[in-house]
């Protein structure tokens, strides 16, 4: 069948395709964040003994280990997506996430099988790291290629809508189990396994939905028009290295954004409990409510980027993040009420939206179609592994040595480095390589 152009898709067809691509993304990130949301409960199951900070530090280290697999996942699935299609790669990633969740849900604790318990936990996180590493680049590419030129920022922002929604659902499950269904003792003994089982089942549903996804016209036309040599070069590192400026730009623009993202969406829950002295249930409610409004901001900022450009919004994030990170975190450490904590975290997330809402489309617009998924996924995954995946571990290490404010300076410095990249890079809304795809 001869593929039609992007312009020939009806709004309903485009929306259905974007929904199919996004819903699997939601499930992937739900499974990924369940680990962080429930680590307060299963840390002692896999790492008995020691104080709470030491146990959390060990689970945070395994959280970081999962990130080390993300570059490999970004490479393998990015290459697969560029050579065999976005749809197939997105189906494969959700299968791997399902396997990782099943392993965690079924693994006995340290008291039953000894050191094999944390080893299996590590293996499960490695599998999930592969999955998420490939999901981001392929999903960002799919949504950006499916969107129309004038609304690309808006539609691609739904990657972070579903990403945050996955996190939000993980927190909703946590709050429901805490307040309605289970006691604290039941949660610590066996209840923490429930959300991982839910994630495995949801991944199977996402797989079924992704079977009916439509391949992007950019990839289909590239396949139809490409010569054998061009097809052989699709998704290779050699082809990617022909775009060093874009690769370095992805690394630089991601550094500060990903560290800030994991600080204010994942670590903040532990921070409110372990440093500000709040109850875990209260911290969960603050985390969930701020994430809900943060999720709603994504399409707004994405649509704004379609009107005023991507670069201005990234610069706004870089400037405000540099100036406000230390004051927000230092005040949050001594917060006196849940309402005050809510507004401080909300202020940080409003600033962060300048990065999260548009970073995926900015990266996709930098690369040609034959290496787009790899170009978005691999350098991003490397940067996230170095800065985002280690956020919890670095923050807890600073606290353990009695220099918690050192983490505030670390986050500020990384955002400042990204700001320098934003000031240097062009506005991809006007230089987008997606507009040059075969048509």
Note down, in words, how this protein is organized.
The chain has 439 residues and is mainly α. The chain has a single domain (8-217, 228-436), classed as Up-down Bundle (Growth Hormone, Chain: A), CATH 1.20.1250.20. Helices cover 81% and strands 0% of the residues. It has 22 helices and no strands. It has helices spanning 11-46, 52-68, 70-84, 86-106, 110-113, 116-146, 152-156, 158-181, 184-189, 194-210, 217-225, 228-233, 237-240, 244-274, 280-308, 310-333, 338-356, 359-364, 372-388, 391-400, 405-424, 428-431. Helix 1 runs antiparallel to helix 10, helix 14 (244-274) runs antiparallel to helix 15 (280-308) and helix 15 (280-308) runs parallel beside helix 17 (338-356). The longest helix is centred in the first third of the chain and has 36 residues, at 11-46. It is globular. The two termini are 15 Å apart.
List low-pLDDT spans. Answer: 1-7
Gross morphology is: globular
Radius of gyration: 21 Å
Which percent band covers the strand fraction?
under 5%
CATH architecture descriptor: Up-down Bundle
What is the total domain count?
1
Tell me the name of the CATH homologous superfamily. Answer: MFS general substrate transporter like domains
- In this structure, how is the largest beta sheet organized? none
Q: What is the CATH class designation? A: Mainly Alpha
**Which secondary-structure class do the elements indicate?**
mainly alpha
Helix fraction by DSSP (H/I, runs of at least 4): over 70%
Measured distance between first and last alpha carbons:
15 Å
Order of helices and strands: HHHHHHHHHHHHHHHHHHHHHH
How many helices? The count is 22
Mean pLDDT reading: 83
CATH topology name, in short, is Growth Hormone, Chain: A
């Amino acid at each position: 069948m001869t593929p039609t152009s992007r312009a020939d898709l009806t709004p309903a067809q485009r929306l259905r395709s974007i929904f199919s691509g996004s819903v699997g993304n939601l499930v992937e990130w739900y499974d990924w964040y369940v680990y962080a949301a429930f680590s307060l409960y299963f840390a002692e199951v896999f790492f008995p003994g020691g104080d709470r900070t030491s146990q959390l530090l060990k689970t945070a280290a395994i959280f970081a280990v999962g990130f080390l697999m993300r570059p490999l996942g970004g490479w393998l699935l990015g290459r697969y997506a560029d050579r065999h299609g976005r749809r197939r790669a997105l189906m494969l990633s959700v299968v791997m996430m399902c396997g990782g969740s099943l392993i965690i849900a079924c693994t006995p604790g340290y008291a039953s099988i000894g050191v094999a318990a944390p080893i299996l936990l590590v293996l499960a996180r490695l599998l999930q790291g592969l999955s998420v590493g490939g999901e981001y680049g392929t999903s960002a590419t799919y949504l950006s290629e499916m969107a129309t030129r004038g609304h690309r920022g808006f539609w691609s922002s739904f990657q972070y809508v579903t990403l945050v929604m996955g996190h939000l659902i993980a927190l909703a499950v946590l709050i429901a189990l805490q307040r309605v269904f289970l006691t604290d003792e039941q949660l610590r003994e066996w209840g923490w396994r429930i959300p991982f089982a839910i994630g495995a089942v949801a991944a199977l549903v996402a797989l079924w939905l992704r079977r009916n996804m439509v391949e992007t016209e950019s990839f289909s036309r590239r396949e139809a028009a490409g010569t054998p040599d061009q097809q052989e070069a699709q998704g290779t590192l050699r082809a990617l290295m022909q775009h060093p400026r874009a690769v370095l730009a992805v690394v630089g623009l991601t550094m500060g954004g990903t560290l800030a993202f994991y600080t204010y969406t994942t670590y903040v829950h532990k921070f409110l409990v372990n440093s500000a002295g709040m109850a875990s249930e209260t911290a969960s409610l603050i985390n969930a409510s701020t994430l809900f409004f943060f999720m709603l901001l994504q399409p707004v900022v994405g649509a704004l980027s379609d009107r005023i450009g991507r670069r201005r919004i990234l610069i706004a994030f870089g400037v405000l993040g540099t100036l406000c990170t230390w004051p927000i975190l230092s005040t949050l450490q001594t917060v006196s009420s849940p309402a005050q904590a809510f507004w401080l975290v909300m202020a940080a997330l409003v600033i962060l939206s300048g990065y999260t809402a548009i970073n995926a489309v900015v990266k996709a617009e930098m690369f040609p179609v034959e290496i787009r998924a790899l170009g978005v996924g691999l350098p991003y995954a490397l940067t996230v592994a170095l800065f985002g995946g280690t956020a919890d571990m670095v923050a807890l290490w600073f606290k353990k040595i009695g220099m918690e404010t050192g983490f505030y300076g670390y986050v500020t410095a990384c955002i400042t480095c990204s700001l320098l990249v934003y000031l240097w890079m062009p506005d991809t809304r006007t230089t987008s390589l997606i507009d040059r795809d075969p048509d």
